[in-house]
Design goal:
- By secondary structure, the protein is of the alpha/beta class.
- It has a single domain, classed as D-Maltodextrin-Binding Protein, domain 2 (3-Layer(aba) Sandwich).
- Helices cover 51% and strands 19% of the residues.
- It has 13 helices and nine strands.
- Strands 1, 2, 3, 4, 5, 6, 7, 8 and 9 form a nine-stranded mixed beta sheet that branches.
- Helix 2 links the parallel strand 1 and strand 2.
- Helix 5 packs across helix 13 and helix 7 crosses helix 12.
- The relative contact order is 0.16.
- Pfam families: DctP.
- Keywords: Signal, Transport.
- It comes from Roseibium aestuarii.
- Belongs to the bacterial solute-binding protein 7 family.
């Protein structure tokens, strides 16, 4: 009799062990930024996400930084297939959910705090829900890649007229071509890897990127002038495969969601730090930095926005309503 009970007890423990093992899951988290949490916005976000989730659930989180699993487009595809469960991406989102491209309308956000109010509020939730329907990817939270600024090696840019005749390297994205053309410059699509050589040889006069990217990649050593016009605010999307998310328990969902929100805010903080530090460092190393006045920014916006908005309305079709929804949300957040 004792042996029977022993065998039953052993079988029960084995079953419980197998059930626990079967329930234990791994979340693969991937991004293209460096892993260093002290300097990398996505790196910092990924690490704090891992710490919170592993600390409060039985889930395991594996990190794949620095493009270890591919570029942003590839990461999005992996998340849509639930091969990689969580990805942190920026520009790639608009390629699978076109409504997200409205965030790239130039001079939309006057400050990061306005952008945060919009993305963390009703608009950001509605956009996330819309993109979930389009892609099967749930937006857990928003992080930040930062404001993009113009640099050049010819003259200080204070007004749109100063852009005339200057060739600017831009990403091969129609929206950026329209923006620079609207400002009077000459947009020149060039691959990121070819940019330093293009600046050194004069193929282009300037480029545009967040301050941290400019400093960390030594572009300030190839350019004399920077204008902090903040023409485009780039958001990070912290995405999770909805197929994976719906399979979690309610308690796990709650922790994962909260961890992503904290991660997004951590990424924003690191980005703000790298921007402030970067501005001081590039000036210390000889770069001339100009901060336009509110009136000067308005002049830039008046030139750049119409061409981009017109282009987007044609491209988005039925989704063009997102332009108006964003503008209304920004107006409300700016009051």
């Amino acid at each position: 009799m004792k042996s029977i009970f022993a065998r039953l007890a052993a079988g029960t423990l084995l079953s419980l062990g197998l059930a626990a093992t079967a329930h234990a899951q791994t979340i693969r988290v991937a991004h293209v930024d460096p892993d260093d949490w002290t300097a990398s916005k996505k790196g910092a976000a990924a690490h704090i996400f891992k710490n919170i989730v592993e600390g409060e659930t039985d889930l395991t989180v594996e990190l794949f930084p620095a493009g270890a699993l591919g570029n942003e487009d590839e990461l999005v595809a992996q998340a849509m297939d639930n091969v990689t469960q969580v990805v942190l991406v920026s520009g790639a989102m608009s390629k699978v959910c076109s409504a997200a491209s409205v965030l790239d309308i130039p001079y939309t956000f006057s400050s990061a705090t306005v952008a945060w109010k919009v993305l963390d509020g009703e608009f950001g939730k509605a956009l996330g829900d819309h993109c979930l329907e389009q892609t099967g990817l749930r937006t857990l939270a928003y992080g930040e890649t930062g404001f993009r600024n113009f640099t050049n090696n010819t003259r200080k840019i204070r007004k749109p007229e100063d852009m005339a005749g200057l060739k600017f390297r831009v990403q091969p994205i129609p929206l950026y071509l329209e923006m620079v053309s609207g400002l009077g410059g000459e947009p020149t699509p060039i691959a990121w890897t070819e940019l330093p050589n293009a600046l050194s040889t004069g193929v282009v006069d300037g480029q545009e990127n967040p301050v941290g990217v400019i400093y960390n990649n030594g572009l300030h050593k190839l350019q004399k002038f920077m204008t902090l016009d903040g023409h485009v605010y780039a958001a990070d999307f912290i995405l999770i495969s909805d197929e994976f998310f719906t399979g979690l328990s309610d308690a796990e969902k709650s922790v994962v969601q909260r961890a992503a929100i904290v991660a997004g805010n951590m990424g924003r903080s690191i980005q703000q730090w790298s921007t402030a530090e970067g501005v001081n460092k590039v000036q210390a190393e000889g770069m001339q930095v100009y901060s336009p006045t509110a009136d000067e920014i308005a002049a830039f916006a008046a030139k750049a926005q119409p061409a981009v908005v017109e282009y987007l309305r044609k491209e988005l079709g039925d989704d063009a309503e997102w332009i108006d929804r964003l503008q209304a949300a920004v107006a409300s957040a700016s009051e």
